[in-house]
Backbone:
């Protein structure tokens, strides 16, 4: 927050972040992840965007290597949360080994050979979508349609915005207003697009403006419309 307020430089903040590479605490990493996400958003309109992705890969890869992909004997709930957070961060940032493993596990999950545990689904989904194509998106929409549990549908809805190509971003936004998505969950899909990339943010803003009447009538000035504006 101090860096955003212009009190201390971003460089100083990044130096402090580097000091936490051996930190085992989930709350600390969650905070680092959130702040790096804000920084990445701010830098997405500059030449430094790829530099910040490289920084994310450097900072998160030691803890990612230590945690691995599979639960270890005696680990607690926070370790599972931390694994999901770290793998998702590395995957989105294009960490090669994480991307390859996520694609392998996703394929096995879709084929029914080895179903992903609940805590690994979001990081795997977000990774394959971020670096995926139209067939990846189609597969995710198929998983959404087939999901028996609303929890799984919501999980998929929150990550669809990670897709990068402009025409696929439009497809996700159209899906957000379709009958496949409950009205109370539409905001999550649009918010995911807005937070997914620079292109997604522009597309989501245009989509909200173009469909403002329908969205406003749908939510009648309630908390969901204010949440939509916030995202």
Residues:
């Amino acid at each position: 927050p101090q860096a955003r307020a212009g009190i201390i430089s971003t460089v100083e903040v990044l130096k402090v972040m580097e000091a936490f590479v051996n930190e085992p605490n989930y709350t600390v990493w969650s905070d680092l992840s959130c702040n790096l996400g804000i920084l990445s958003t701010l830098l997405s309109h500059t030449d430094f965007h790829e530099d910040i992705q490289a920084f994310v890969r450097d900072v998160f890869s030691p803890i990612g290597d230590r945690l691995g992909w599979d639960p270890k004997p005696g680990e607690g709930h926070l370790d599972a949360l931390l694994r999901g957070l770290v793998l998702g961060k590395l995957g989105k940032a294009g960490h090669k080994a994480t991307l390859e493993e996520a694609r392998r596990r996703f394929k096995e999950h879709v084929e029914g050979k080895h179903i992903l545990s609940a805590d690994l689904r979001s990081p795997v989904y977000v990774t394959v979508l971020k670096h995926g194509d139209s067939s990846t998106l189609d597969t995710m929409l198929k998983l959404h349609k087939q999901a028996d549990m609303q929890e799984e549908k919501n999980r998929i809805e929150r990550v669809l915005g990670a897709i990068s190509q402009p025409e696929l971003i439009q497809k996700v936004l159209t899906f957000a207003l379709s009958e496949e998505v409950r009205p109370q969950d539409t905001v999550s899909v649009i918010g995911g697009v807005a937070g997914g990339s620079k292109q997604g943010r522009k597309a989501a803003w245009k989509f909200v403006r173009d469909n403002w009447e329908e969205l406003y009538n749908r939510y009648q000035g309630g908390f969901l419309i204010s949440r939509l504006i916030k995202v």
